[in-house]
């Protein structure tokens, strides 16, 4: 097995960055696929080696730094727009799945507390998750329950991060997950696809996880001064539309945390939040909800 070092990882991270669309291949060119295969081999080799090593006192230098660079490499390769990833499944090529599998093992090997402490690791971690939920959500839905819950649970934690970029990335990932549920379960066909069945079971089996996310979203809006209200609004709308019961319960929980004399006024704020909002996640409805959420924050916080 080749010896994979940090300098090599950094070089590859620069190589796969499609800055200014410099990596442009013709429609019939295999170069993008060939490049990704080599990237996959590198990540699998490094990940297999790093996961087998014993932990040391300086975890950042010994493991986390290299893992975070791998996250950057894979994120850039996945979002570079020079690979048709459907080709891998079509021809039974495991390059994509193998690189995702080992990367998920690497991120799950890092305690969430450590991810949040080392800010470079956090930046790489949440950027990777946003990319994963945006372009490879079916893979996320295929994960075992424990891995899925840990990853989605980390998104809730990231929502509360003081860094608006990380908070926005988590909201974007949650929005993509809720949108998939809405499109394929709430408004889906009677004969659901395997992925729709998977996401339906994940939501029904883990109600506390998703109600916690919706509550956290509202808490960020109410208690903080987020500069990313548009991103948060998309995630909130998606979560509300996939479960009216969950929204009703969260509303009751939030109201219960305030003195009774404020309940009528605050309940009115919640009622106005959904005014003229339809059962849709199209752009027009998202814009309407965003306007309502902006007014909701102003009126709710003026209690």
TrEMBL record:
The keyword Nucleus applies. Gene3D superfamilies: Leucine-rich Repeat Variant. InterPro entries: ARM-like (IPR011989), XPO4/7-like (IPR044189). It is found in: Cytoplasm; Nucleus. Keywords: Cytoplasm, Nucleus, Protein transport, Transport. The keyword NAD does not apply. Belongs to the exportin family. PANTHER family: ARMADILLO_BETA-CATENIN-LIKE REPEAT PROTEIN, EXPORTIN 4,7-RELATED. This is Uncharacterized protein. The lineage of its organism: Eukaryota, Viridiplantae, Streptophyta, Embryophyta, Tracheophyta.
């Amino acid at each position: 097995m080749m010896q994979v070092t940090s300098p090599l990882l950094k070089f590859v991270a620069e190589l796969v960055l499609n800055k200014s669309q410099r990596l442009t291949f013709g429609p019939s060119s295999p170069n993008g696929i060939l490049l990704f295969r080599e990237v996959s081999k590198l990540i699998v080799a490094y990940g297999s080696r790093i996961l087998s090593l014993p932990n040391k006192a300086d975890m950042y230098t010994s493991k986390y730094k290299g893992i975070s660079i791998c996250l950057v490499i894979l994120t850039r390769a996945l979002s570079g727009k020079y690979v048709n990833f459907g080709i891998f499944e079509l021809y039974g090529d495991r390059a994509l799945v193998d690189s995702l599998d080992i990367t998920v093992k690497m991120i799950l090997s890092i305690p969430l507390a450590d991810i949040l402490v080392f800010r470079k690791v956090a930046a790489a971690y949440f950027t990777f998750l946003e990319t994963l939920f945006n372009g490879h959500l079916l893979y996320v839905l295929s994960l075992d329950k424990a891995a899925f819950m840990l990853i989605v649970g980390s998104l809730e934690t990231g929502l509360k991060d003081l860094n608006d970029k990380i908070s926005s990335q988590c909201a974007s990932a949650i929005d993509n997950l809720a949108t998939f549920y809405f499109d394929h379960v709430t408004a889906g066909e009677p004969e659901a696809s395997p992925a729709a069945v998977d996401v339906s079971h994940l939501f029904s089996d883990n109600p506390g996880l998703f109600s916690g996310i919706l509550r956290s979203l509202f808490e960020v809006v109410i208690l903080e001064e987020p500069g990313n209200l548009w991103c948060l609004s998309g995630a909130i709308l998606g979560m509300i539309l996939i479960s009216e019961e969950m929204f009703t319960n969260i509303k009751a929980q939030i109201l219960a945390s305030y003195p009774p004399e404020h309940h009528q006024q605050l309940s009115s704020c919640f009622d106005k939040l959904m005014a003229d909002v339809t059962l849709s996640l199209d752009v027009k409805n998202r814009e309407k909800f965003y306007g309502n959420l902006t007014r909701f924050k102003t009126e709710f916080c003026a209690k």
